[in-house]
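One thing: can you check what follows?
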Amino acid sequence: SIIGTDTTLALVGTYRIVNNRYTELDIPLLLGYEYTGGKVSFSLNGGILVNMLSAQRGEFLSPNTDEAVSFSSADPNAYRAFRNRLGLGFYGSMGAYFQINEQLQFVLEPYFKWRPGSYTVEGYGLEQRYSTAGLFVGLRKAIY
C-alpha cells in the first residue's frame, strides 16, 4: 500500500539585472494653438513624429535558447531583433502657462506619444509596441 508521496521541484537559475537602452531621433511636425488669458495661458499641440533613427543596446533571453544574448544596433554581429527606423508616430499635448512676470512663465505640459508600428523586426517572435506619457515642467521666457 502507498502511504503518501512527496514531490520536490527545485529550480536553480541565474538572477541578473540588465539595463537596456533604447534611443530614438524624431522630427516633429506639429500644429498648435495657444489661448492667452490674463495670468494663465493654455495650448493644444498635435501632429506626427517622423523617426530618423532608432538605436538599441542591451541583453535579453534568446527566443531559441534560455541563454542571455546581447543586442546592439551598432554591432552587426549582435542578435538582430529591433528595427533601425520606426516610421511614423503620433504626438499630442496640452499645456498651461502661468505668468510669473512680464517675460517669464511657469510651464506645465502633459504629453502623449504613440507609435503604432512594432519596434521589433519582422520574424522576431515578439512584437513590442510602446506608448509614452510624460510631463514637461519648466520656465518659458519671451525673447521679443
User: Anything to note?
Assistant: The two ends are 95 Å apart (CA to CA). DSSP finds no helices and six strands in the chain. The first strand starts at residue 21 and ends at 36. The chain has a mean pLDDT of 83.
